[in-house]
Prior knowledge:
Helix content of chain A: 10-25%
CATH class of the largest domain in chain B: Alpha Beta
Oligomer: heterodimer
Largest sheet of chain B: 8 strands, mixed
Structural class of chain B: alpha/beta
Helix content of chain B: 25-40%
Distance between the termini of chain B: 49 Å
Order of helices and strands of chain B: EHEEHEEHEEEEHEEEEHEEEHHHHHH
Number of domains of chain A: 1
Mean pLDDT of chain A: 97
Largest sheet of chain A: 2 strands, antiparallel
Number of strands of chain A: 4
Mean pLDDT of chain B: 92
CATH topology of the largest domain in chain B: FAD/NAD(P)-binding domain
Strand content of chain A: 15-25%
Radius of gyration of chain A: 10 Å
CATH architecture of chain A: 2-Layer Sandwich
Low-confidence stretches of chain B: none
CATH architecture of the largest domain in chain B: 3-Layer(bba) Sandwich
Order of helices and strands of chain A: EHEEHE
Radius of gyration of chain B: 21 Å
Strand content of chain B: 25-35%
Distance between the termini of chain A: 6 Å
Number of domains of chain B: 3
Shape of chain A: globular
Largest interface: A-B, 21 and 34 residues
Amino acid sequence: MIQINSDHCDLCGTCLSVCPVDCIELTETKLNIDESACTKCQLCVRICPFKALKLVG
Amino acid sequence: MRTEYDIVVVGGGPAGSTTARFSKTENNSVALFEKDREIGIPVRCAEATSELCLRNLVPLDPKWIANTITKARLIAPDGKEVNLNLPVGGIILHRRLFDSGLAEIAANLGVEVFTKAYVHRIEPDENQRWKVFVRHLDREYLIKAKIVIAADGVESRVARWAGIKSQTLLKDIESCAQVLLGNVDVVDERIDFYISSKLAPGGYVWVFPKGNRTANVGLGVNGAQTLQKCSLDLLNDFIDEKFPGAARLTTVAGGVPVAKSLKKIAADGLLIVGDAARQVNPVSGGGILAAITAGKIAGAVAAKAININDWSLKVLKEYQTEWDKGAGKDYTLFYHIKGWITQLSDEYYNEIAEMLHKIPPSEVNLLTIFKIALRKKPALVLDAVKLFAKMI
């Protein structure tokens, strides 16, 4: 799964723009990834300006 | 909050507020939903734009302007500097004041503005209207709208829910970090750009003074060229080296689309504007002017559609046509130039800077830089001819 480090995440939404399956949700205070739809392509991991995302497991 | 609006705008940035403002008439209802608690915050922007261009588009409140710029300095990878005078006056905005100012203008015309209003789904209904699902202060609302304006930024999902492909390729997005630095020695009337694959691969570092010993210092890394170190790490290295002892007053992340604007920016009952439509100058990464230009057209077209009671693509496509033949055409050309620029090596930039050093500083301007770049890279001639034909 893609793990979100909420201490690092700035809620900028850059990851949403590159996600091929639209499985990321951004609210005012939270980033959520829908694990069931995520394909683990890791484009979000590569684009994150603050390295808040990583693939685990 | 009503249960029905003629027009619902999703997103309270410059694109959303401008579209809302130009779509509002005495005979229609317009709501603007912003997911964050305050319009204009956080500021995910280097805040530079052109004074001349903005003045043509909005009544400019002097309070929105942090600083005025007349000069630029380009720093090549080997540290060689090229100084030039800007052909048009530049300004550094206070985006938080600018954005809330634009929303106030819309509100004063009767646009209903809601913050902490998160649109989490839109669906078409059977009467050519949209069902807009909004979460506002812990309550769910279902609102009907004839036209939805997707102004929901780089993170846009509204267009996707309407079935429009807006996924951006890694090479078409810059991964950016920015710090508002305090206690720095900067020349207030000059903006600096550092170009180097070590500092910011496939992008650049900017230093934009905001007055009172402060400056927006940030960088963008092309999505296809991201490294082990993320943008924030690279920026911190740069600041430690160039501005030791400076205070980090604000730190933000952000993604800047450097793509072609979306092929489809209008559909039945839907218009897409600003970063959500990837309407950004792909060379500079500047999006404020594009957002306002698009918002003005989109707003007028939406108002007309409501007025004649037809919000199908047949009417709304006028926005697409106007954008494509105006700013859209320029930005497509800039997109090709960007593709070429991102291929250039550090050595190439060093050589250009070296050649420019042999020219008297008073004669250095964007045109001479371009001429020298052309001499070294004839493949650019075709794009350049098109570009200058357009400028004249």
